[in-house]
Design goal:
Aspartate Aminotransferase, domain 2, 13 helices, four-stranded antiparallel beta sheet, seven-stranded mixed beta sheet, alpha/beta, Aspartate Aminotransferase, domain 1, 15% strand, 2 domains, homotetramer
C-alpha cells in the first residue's frame, strides 16, 4: 500500500488484455495500422468532434510537442507557477519549443483565473520585438493541487486567452479524474470550452504508457507528425499505444478507474481532515490529497513504511510542511482504513 | 506475410508474458523499482562490464539522447550517408544535440572504413572556431544495408575515431542480429572494440518498445538522466520497459529471435539470387535483403499483395530500383517459400 | 533632447576617433590582431586579474552567450522578474542556452536579496531529474530600475548563490554607471564579490556596439569561442570592437561618460521629485529616473515633443502609470532645466 | 601586404565618413531612425523592388537568421559541400534554425547544378515523417571557390529548387564582387532569378560590420524581427549599420570597391598562372585566387612574410595542396607585382 504516486500502480488488467489482443499478425508500423485508425476514430466519438489525434508514451512528450506547435520558439507560455510544465518536466517545454519562455503565474489552489492571467500580461506588456510575445495559455485539468476547473471556469479562462491572442493548451494528465469528478462531457471540458489542444493522459490512470495529443482544429496540427518523429516519440509498433486506449475506452473503463481513485481520495481526505491537528491544504477534488500533519506525524508514518512524499509548491500555504498522498485505481478501502488508523495513532 | 519491416511484426509472446509478470503491486516510478535495477544489472552481465544503462522507448530517442552527451551542440558527427541517424530520424540528432552537424560519409555496403573517415576529416579540416569541430563517429551495427562490421573492422574504426579525437556512438537497433550473425560476445562488439555508447535495440526484434542506451564508461553518462527527462523519454512506469528486457534476455531469447530472422533472410536472399535477372545488392548478413528485380516484377508481386518497399540510398548502386525485404522473428519457412515461388513465376 | 533611452545618443567622439585610428593596414581577422590583444590585456588591468575577454556587439548576445556556458541546456536561471534577460531579450537566454528556464524572482527596486533567492529556491526544490536544476543566478548592475547593488549586497548575493551551487552571471550593460556611482573598483564589483562572468557594456555609454564578456576564471570560458562563432557574433574585423574599448578606457572616458549621465539623472530626479504630485518610483542611483506624474502630465509633455516612455515592471508599484526617463552622456544641464520647466508648467 | 582574407583589410574611408556623419543628435534606437529608413528604401531602389531589409553585423548571423525563416527546424537545406554555411559557421545554421539538417552537395568549382541538386534529392527521397524534408536550397554568389553563377545558371537553379518545393537562400557575402564581375543588375542576380532571400554582404568589401538580409517577398519576412532580437542581432544604435550602407551605396562605392578587388585578383591569377609549375585551381572570377604551387614554394613565400593560407575543400582537386589568395579593395598593383616577383624567384 502506497500513496506515493498514481504511477506506482501498474497497469489495469484490461489494458494488458488489450495489448495482448493487438499482438496478432503483421501490421503497418508508425500508426498506419487499422487499430490505430480505429482508436483515433474512437477519440473523435468520445470528444464529439473530428479531430487529429497523435499518440505518445509520456505526458512530458505530449505537453512539449503540443506546445511546440502552439507557439513560436521565441514565444511565451503563461502557466500556473505550480504546473507540471513549469515544475516537473526539467525544462522540457523550453526544449521542445526551441527556447520558448514560461511565465509562471500565481493562483490559489493550483488554479489560474482570468484576473491572474490579465495581471501577468499587464506586468509583461507587448513591446515587439523586445519582450517574448505572450502566445499560449497552458492550463492543467485536474491541477497539480488536486483541484479542478469547472466548465465555466475553464470557459472563462479560454475566453480570456482568446481575447489576449493566446492559444490554449490543456495538460490533461489527470483529465479522466477531472471528467469523472465533474461528470461533464469531454467536449465540454475541452474544445467547447475553448481549448485548442488537449494532452489526454492514460498513463497515470491504468495504462502502461499512453498519452494522446488531440488537436480539435485539425489544421492546427500542422507539422506535429514531423516534430513527434524528430523527438523520437513516434512508435514504430504504434498499435501497442492504440491498444491501450482501445482498452481504456471500452465500457467506460477510463472513467471507472478515475472515479475509483477519486473516491478513495475523498475518503482519505475526509478521514484525515477529521483527525485533530491535520489540515487539508487544498480541496480534494480528484485523486490527490494534500495535507499538513502535526509535527512528527508524517515522519512517524514513513518510519512505519507508509509511502508518501512531502510536497512543495511556490507560494505554498504550508511553508514546506505539506504532504502529498495520491490514490490510484488500485487503492482499496482497506488501504484507506489502514492509513487513517495509523495516522490517528501517530497523532 | 510481409517483408515490409521488422517493426510490422508484433511482440514475441515471451515479451508480453514478462510485462504481465511485472504488473504486480505498487512499485516506485521513474526507474526506482527493483525490476529496473535487476535488468540494469543483467545488462552489465551480458556486456561483462559495469556500465550505466538507460531505457527509452524508441531508437530515435536512444540515438539522439546518446549523441547529445557525446558531443557539444556545435560539434560534428561523422556518419554513413545511408545511416538511420542521417536519413531516417527527421533531423532528430540535430534536435537532441541542440544543433550539431552531421557530415555524411560514403562507404560501400552501408559501411564506413577508417580510410573513408580519414578522407572525410581531411576534407573538413579543423579551423577552430570556424568549422564545426568533428567530435563523434556514429556507426551502425548491423547496418542499414543489412551488412555487419566484423570485430576487427569495428575495432579499427574505433581506433581511427580515437586517433582523431572522436567519441564513438554505435546505433545498435539491430545489434542482436549482428551479434547472432557473428556469434561474437556483446562486449567484443562494443566496448572492447572501442565503442563509448551503444544504443541497444529491442523493438525491432520482438519487444514492444524497448531500447537501452549503454554507457560503458559510467562517467560519460554525465547528465543523461536530465536530458532523457526533459525530452519526455523517462517513463514513469519504467518497470514495463525493464520487463521487456527481462524477457528479452531470458534463455537467450534476444539471440534466438535475431538468429531466426537472420536465417530467414539468408534463405530469401539465396532463393532470390538464384532467380534469373534478380540481383542481390548487398551481402545479406543479417535480416535484410536488398535486391533489384527484373523490370515489372516488384510491381507485379506488390499487385498480388506481397508487401515490401523500394529503397533508395545515396550512392545507390542500383539507381533507385532497389527493393528492401526484411525478415522478422515471425517470418516462416512457408513465407519464404511462398514469396520465392511468386517471384519465380513473376520473373 | 530626449529621455527615451541611452541608446538614442550616438557615439562619443572619442570612440569614433579610436575606430578611425584602428583603420590602418591589414591585420588578422577574428581577433587575431594586436589591438584586440592589447585591449584584452587592458581589461585584465582594469579588473586587476587575468581573465578571458570576448567581444560582441550587443548586450543580448553577451548575456545569452555567457549564460550558455554557465549552465546546462536544461538548467534554471534565477533572475529578477524585471531583469533584461527576463523581460527584454525576446527569450534570448532560452535560445542561446538551448532551452534553459528562467525563474523570475521578485525584489524591491529591481534588486534581488539573498532571502528572495532562498525563497525562490525553496519554492522550486531539487528533485532530479524532474525539476530543471537551479544552476545560475543572474544579477544586473545597475538594475533596470536605476538602482545599484552595494559591494556588500553583491557579495552577499554571490555567497548565497555559491552556497546553493549556482554560478553567477552579472549583466553589466550599465556597469559603468554603477562603478561611477559607487566609486568602487571594477574588481570589487565583480570577481572579488563572487561574480563568475561579467557582461560589460559599452554600447549604452558612448560606444557604437561594444560589449565584453569577461570570464574571471579563464577555465570557465570553456567553449565560448565556438558558441560565439556559431551564433554569428564573432566579428571578422574584430579590431573595430577592440578599438571602441580602446577609446573607452583611455583617460577614464568610460567612467566620465557614465558619471555625466548619472549626474544628469540625479538632477532630473531631484527636480521632478520637487514638483507637486510627481512621485519618484525608485531611488535614482544611476542614469535612469522612474516617476509617476499627475494624471495627464506625461501625455501633455509628450504632446510637446518631449520623448520618454511609459514603463511597466511586474509588481510595478505604480500600477502601470510609471514613466522612465534616461539620461546619457549627451544630456545637458539645459536639457534638464528645459524638461523640468515644462514638467512644472504641465502639472 | 597580405592575401590572407578580404576581412584583413579595414574599412574604406568613405564608410568611416558615413558613420561620422550619422553621429549627430539623438535618434530612435533599434532601427526606428530616419537614416535606417532611408537606407532601407535605398535597398529597394538598388534591387528595383519593394522588399523588407534587415541589418545585422555578420554574415553568419545573416545566413543563420535568413535560413531560420525559410524552413522548419526539422527541415533540410541543400548546400554546396564547400559552402560557408556548411564549412565555416561552426554549425550556425543548425543553431539558428533550431536543428535543421544540411545536406552537402558536390559540384565542380564550388558551384551547384540543377542536376547535382536533383541527384542529391533522389538520394534522399521524401518519406514523411522519416527523413528530414528537403526545404531550402542555399546558394552562394560569388562562391567560396572564387567563381560565379551566371544569371542563367542562377535562374535555372532557382527553377529547379522551385520545382522541388524548396525556398532559395543566397549567401551574398561577396555579392558585390559577383555583381561587379557580371555587370548584371542586382535584381537579375536575385529575385528576378528566383531568389527568396539574399544575404547581402558589406563587411568583406569595405564596411566595418554590415550585412543586410533582404526578403524580396515582404510576407516571407514573417517573424524575422523577433528572431533577430532573440539572437542578439538587433543593434540598439542601428543607425551605425545603416550609415555604413549609406556610404556603401553612395556613388556606386560598393561596386567600385568590388571591381578593384576583382581586378587585382585577375592580375594575380594571370601572373601566377604564367609561372612554371603553378596551377590555378578554379577560374578566377571574383577576388579570390586558388592555386597550387610547386613543392616548397608556398612555404618559402610564407617564410618571407607573405601571408596567405592553405585551403582545403571537400573533393579538393589538389589533394590538400591548394593555396588561397584573396585580394581586397586595398590591394595595389605594387602588391601584386611584388608577390609575383617573389613567387617567380621562389619557384
Amino acid at each position: 500500500m502506497t500513496f506515493a504516486s498514481d504511477n506506482w500502480a501498474g497497469a489495469a488488467p484490461e489494458i494488458l488484455d488489450a495489448i495482448a489482443r493487438a499482438n496478432v499478425g503483421a501490421v503497418p508500423g508508425y500508426g498506419g495500422d487499422d487499430l490505430t485508425k480505429k482508436v483515433e476514430a474512437r477519440f473523435c466519438e468520445v470528444f464529439e468532434k473530428d479531430c487529429r489525434v497523435f499518440f505518445v508514451a509520456t505526458g512530458g512528450a505530449a505537453n512539449g510537442l503540443a506546445l511546440s506547435v502552439l507557439l513560436p520558439p521565441y514565444g511565451m507560455i503563461l502557466a500556473h507557477e505550480a504546473s507540471h510544465v513549469q515544475m516537473d518536466e526539467c525544462a522540457g517545454p523550453e526544449f521542445f519549443t526551441g527556447g520558448a519562455k514560461i511565465l509562471p503565474v500565481a493562483g490559489a489552489d493550483g488554479k489560474l483565473t482570468p484576473d491572474g492571467v490579465a495581471g501577468a500580461l499587464a506586468g509583461f506588456p507587448e513591446r515587439p520585438p523586445h519582450g517574448a510575445p505572450a502566445a499560449c495559455l497552458s492550463l492543467t485539468q485536474g491541477t497539480e493541487c488536486g483541484t479542478i476547473y469547472s466548465v465555466s471556469e475553464l470557459t472563462d479562462l479560454c475566453a480570456a486567452a482568446r481575447h489576449a491572442g493566446l492559444t490554449v493548451h490543456l495538460d490533461g494528465a489527470r483529465f479522466a479524474n477531472a471528467a469523472a469528478a465533474l461528470g461533464a462531457a469531454p467536449a465540454d471540458l475541452s474544445w467547447r470550452a475553448g481549448v485548442d489542444v488537449l494532452c489526454f493522459g492514460g498513463t497515470k490512470n491504468g495504462c502502461i504508457a499512453a498519452e494522446a495529443v488531440i488537436f480539435f482544429d485539425p489544421e492546427k496540427a500542422a507539422d506535429f507528425e514531423f516534430r513527434r518523429k524528430r523527438a523520437g516519440h513516434l512508435w514504430s509498433k504504434m498499435r501497442f499505444i492504440a491498444a491501450q486506449f482501445d482498452g481504456y475506452f471500452e465500457n467506460g473503463l477510463w472513467l471507472d478507474l478515475a472515479a475509483r481513485a477519486n473516491a478513495m481520495a475523498k475518503k482519505l481526505s475526509a478521514g484525515l481532515g477529521a483527525i485533530d491537528g491535520v489540515e487539508i491544504s487544498y480541496p480534494t477534488e480528484i485523486n490527490e490529497v494534500f495535507a499538513v500533519f502535526p509535527d512528527g506525524v508524517a515522519e512517524h508514518l514513513r518510519d512505519q513504511g507508509r509511502v508518501f512524499f512531502p510536497w512543495v509548491t511556490p507560494g505554498d500555504p504550508a511553508g514546506g510542511k505539506m504532504q502529498r498522498l495520491i490514490c490510484s485505481f488500485r487503492t482499496t478501502d482497506e488501504d484507506i482504513a489502514s492509513f487513517l488508523d495509523a495516522a490517528r495513532r501517530a497523532g
